[in-house]
Input
Amino acid sequence: MVNSRKSENQLTPKQEKFVRFYIQFGGNGTRAAKAAGYQEASAHTTANRTLKLPYIQQAIKEHAETVLKTNVALASDTLVNLMMNAASESVKRQCAIDLLDRGGLPLIRQSETRHVIEDGRTDQELLASVQALVAELGLDAKIIEGEVIPDKEKATPEALEQPVEVIPDWLSPAIVTVHE
Output
């Protein structure tokens, strides 16, 4: 097979077409080979062989970068138009975030932070603390004696059979069993 390349940096007209069509068709080598004028029966094989050539890979990379650079303004304009005119608020919001990200001002996204507070006091110390708070605040509260089971999966079957006192949502989600 005769190589019709004129120099190391210059592609043949068919190779140039192949590179352009390869980008245009989203990386479909067979379609690019057919569109560039290679024989349809061997387009798949020709595409595979052509794509292995380092200077073709370099040309594809350069052409892709050129296409991206020349369309940045159009893409930005499209994002601005969507941000301003989209019917959906979520589309407007996503366009604004994308514009900020691309402009070098990434939006600080909310993240979940979980804090675990461990209290090393014994049950008796906690009970005494609750009783002191009830007295200090002048509340008329009933303290229910019971066992706190912090994890339902770790609870014993006997503890789960005991009647459970309903506790308000604002209290700890622990299970309180009442011993009568």
User: Anything to note?
Assistant: The chain has eight helices and two strands. The longest helix spans residues 54-70.
